[in-house]
Each structure stands twice: as structure tokens, then as C-alpha cells.
């Protein structure tokens, strides 16, 4: 019994293409198996980033509100000082007079 197996180049090409497809399918399965945990971790990270972004946004709004209130208060105080400039000048003169009187008394009794 003399058995001869003859493989043509076309058959060899189809065998090589089939083997390459089989290896490619195994590679894709391994890649997907490795990608699933990465996708789960990425989802958790994105949820944390969203939470941090919400906190930062709220903090920024609070700071903007505080600065707005501070600016408004400074404007009100500035207007009050401008309107009461004569009172401030009078109080400053009175304070200077009291200080001068104190210095005179201190020189007399020392």
C-alpha cells in the first residue's frame, strides 16, 4: 500500500489562512477577557471623577457666592464711609486731641 498525499499550494494557503483565523479568534477572546476587568475599573474611576467634579463645582459656587457677598459688603462699607467722612474726620481729630492732651499731662507729671 502506497498512499500518496498530495497537497496543492491552494490547499496549503487555505490551511494557513484557517490556522491564522483560529489564532486570531483565540487572541481576540483573550483580549476581551482582559478588557472586561479594565472596563469595570474604568467605570469606577469615572464615577469617582464625576463625584469629585460635583464637589468641586459646588465648592466653586460657594466661593463665588462668598466673594459676591464680600464685594457687596465692601461697597456698602465704602459708601457708609464716604457718607460719614465728616464723622470720621471729627473722630480722628478728637482722638488726636486726646492723644496730645495725654502727652502734655504725661510731660507735666514726669
Query: What is the CA-based Rg, rounded?
Result: 44 Å
Low-confidence segments, given as residue ranges, are none
Main sheet summary: none
Shape: rod-shaped
Strand/helix succession = HH
**Count of the domains:** 1
The multimeric state of the shown protein is single chain
Report the mean per-residue pLDDT as an integer: 83
Distance between the termini: 141 Å
Number of helices: 2
Q: How many strand segments?
A: 0
Share of helix, binned: over 70%
Strand content range: under 5%
Structural class: mainly alpha
Task: Present the secondary structure layout.
Blueprint: H1 9-83, H2 85-109
Describe the model.
- The structure is a single chain.
- This protein is mainly α.
- It has one domain.
- The protein is 91% helix and 0% strand.
- It contains two helices and no strands.
- It is rod-shaped and about 145 Å long.
Summarize the structure.
With 110 residues, the chain is mainly alpha-helical. It has 2 helices and no strands.
Question: Top keywords for this entry?
Answer:
single chain, 110 residues, mainly alpha, 2 helices
